[in-house]
UniProtKB/TrEMBL annotation:
It comes from Aminivibrio pyruvatiphilus. It is an enzyme of class 2 (transferase). This is histidine kinase. One of its GO terms (cellular component) is plasma membrane. Pfam families: HATPase_c. Residues 250-446 form the Histidine kinase domain.
Length: 452
């Protein structure tokens, strides 16, 4: 509700009471001096005196009207804020109370009867329109300024002689000013000056309302953008947490293999069942322990590198995706000589990069009903390229980051970071016949596998 974002209903009702009391006090302002000054205008025959008197009449009527309209305006919103079921009072209160006030007995100010004419009708209408246009704006200061400009502008219509036949300016003060203008034959002066001031104030009210509405819309857009950014941040955190959990589970699984070997052979040696093979078993245990040590170093230290064949790296990748049902959709395309080529990498991190590409390809296939993922290995000079292709919809043309398949983009960010840290190049592109290709290119190690 609007009142929740703006003033508390009790404070709005208190402000409404203040303005209504101010309106009551304004009725007590004596108009005798002003009427006497207007009566002397035919004697001086001065157009300046006529315009001065007209301005004072509009100022007095404007102050009274602004206090009245603003008081009932705030009263309606304060009553509507007391309970959701009373929301209709925000427009019904000013629409009903303001006209009723004009027909009160002439007891509030020297017996002057208020006239509910065209300016009053326009003022009530402006209250309702302003209430609707600014329903999502909680700043009552700006609303009050806009309302005051509209109400004050309509008061100038009362002193325009040509509008008298339309119900404007039938009050005692306004009629006196127009009578004096008729005696001086200066009715055209009041028509033009009153119309000009009315137009200026009315346009100022329109511009103020437009600025409020535009500013409110921008604030709403900014709030929506912040909300989306917060949701995306939470999604990224959840995705990162889930991805970290999956990676931890896979790393534990990888560490468990050499640990199982160590424990199994150690148990054989301790039980005495490995007579004659203890040395061979011990060698296997040491190799498994060194493998675990290398894996732990790769996990803890990003810059740790070791020589490994492309075939062993690919085998390590397939080991990590083996628990997943989509493993059967991944096909390997590589020549045996290429698989024997060596690279110097952080095996754990590089394999995770390739797994991320395979996982993105799986998501892409789910989007378009694709069924096959291809992991190809090729050799070009001293560079080795591992490429993953899918049968999905391809990368979106307007993507700024991520794969675009309802993902946060953390997978591709990780791939890019790992490849760059290895001095390699990561690239992605859509295929002409459909699908997408993501590839990472690494430098080939100068040492052959047989030299290790």
């Amino acid at each position: 509700m609007e009142t929740v974002k703006g003033l508390h209903p009790a404070r709005q009702l208190a402000a409404a009471l203040f303005f209504l009391l101010l309106w009551t006090a304004a009725q007590q302002i004596s108009t005798a001096p002003l009427l006497a000054a207007i009566a002397r205008i035919p004697e001086t025959m001065d157009s300046g005196d006529l315009l001065t008197a007209a301005s004072f009449v509009v100022l007095l009527n404007g102050l009274r009207a602004i206090a009245l309209y603003l008081g009932w305006f705030l009263a309606g919103n304060g009553l509507a804020g007391l309970h959701p079921s009373l929301s209709f009072l925000s427009w019904l209160t000013p629409a009903a109370a303001i006209p009723m006030t004009y027909f009160l007995p002439p007891v509030l100010g020297e017996g002057i009867q208020l006239h509910f004419g065209i300016p009053a009708v326009l003022s009530v209408t402006s209250v309702l329109v302003l209430r609707y246009l600014t329903r999502n704006i909680s700043d009552w200061a700006y609303k009050s300024i806009a309302l005051a400009l509209f109400v004050f502008s309509f008061q100038w219509l009362d002193i325009i002689p040509s509008l008298t036949v339309w119900g404007a300016g039938w009050g005692e003060l306004s009629s006196s000013v127009k009578t004096a203008a008729g005696i001086l034959e200066r009715e055209g002066l009041l028509n033009w000056s009153g119309g000009a001031v009315f137009a200026g104030l009315f346009l100022s009210g329109v511009l103020t309302t437009e600025l409020m509405v535009t500013y409110s819309a921008r604030l709403a857009d900014m709030a929506l953008l912040r909300d989306r950014e917060n949701k995306m941040a939470r999604l990224r955190e959840e995705s990162l947490s889930n991805r970290s959990l999956v990676e931890m589970q896979q790393l534990v699984h990888d560490l468990k293999r050499p640990l199982t070997t160590i424990l199994g052979l150690g148990d054989v040696i301790v039980s005495g069942r490995g007579e004659g093979n203890a040395a061979r078993y011990g060698t296997v245990i040491c190799e498994a322990a060194r493998s675990m040590e290398e894996m732990v170093s790769e996990i803890l230290h990003e810059d740790f590198r070791r020589q490994v064949s492309i075939g062993d790296l690919v085998e390590y990748v397939f080991t990590q995706i083996s628990p997943f049902p989509w493993r059967e959709t991944v096909l390997l395309e590589a020549d045996r000589p290429v698989l024997r080529e060596m690279v110097k990498v952080n095996v754990v991190r590089m394999s995770r990069a390739v797994v991320n590409l395979l996982d993105n390809a799986r998501k892409a296939n789910l989007q378009a009903g694709g069924g096959k993922i291809t992991l190809s290995v090729s050799l070009e000079g001293d560079r080795v390229t591992l490429a993953v292709t899918d049968e999905g919809p391809g990368f979106p043309q307007d993507r700024t980051s991520g794969s675009g398949w309802n993902s946060t983009g953390l997978g591709l960010q990780y791939v890019t970071m790992v490849v760059h840290n290895h001095g390699g190049v990561f690239s992605s592109a859509n295929l002409p016949g459909g699908g997408a290709r993501a590839a990472l290119t690494l430098g080939r190690s100068v040492k052959g596998k047989d030299e290790l």
